[in-house]
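I'll show an entry:

:::
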Amino acid sequence: MTTTQPVAQTDPAAVRLAVDDLVPHLSKAMSSLEAASRKVRLEPSLQELVRARASQLNGCAYCVDMHSRDAVEGGESTRRIFLLPVWRETALFTPRERAALALTEAATRLTDGPVPDDVFAAAAAEFDETELAELIWTITVINAWNRLGATARPWPLP
């Protein structure tokens, strides 16, 4: 088993705490949850936009990098990835994507309060109940990963 000494915040390339190695049964469970969250009907491009946006909001550099690259490899344009932080200011995102991104932001920024009814209603208008549940799970899982990454930095950027 690998142990890690705490690393000063000034070295973002270093592992701060190897949570996967230190608690492997939880790491395995989280990886299983991740795999299950990908077995949904939601379009892969939408899933990656949601994952990238939540990761941006949470300040998880590893996840921003991974999901931005995954989105591009899946056919997403770099222009839309570049504009993701300001998606409200462009016409490049569909109503369905806009509803998903608004729900992602509201569910990620819970310190602002619970998800507003109008944000939930807008998502419910674009997604059927199963898709909406899948979207909520996708948002929940990426937020869990982001919290691990932003706190422990167990996976440094290559």
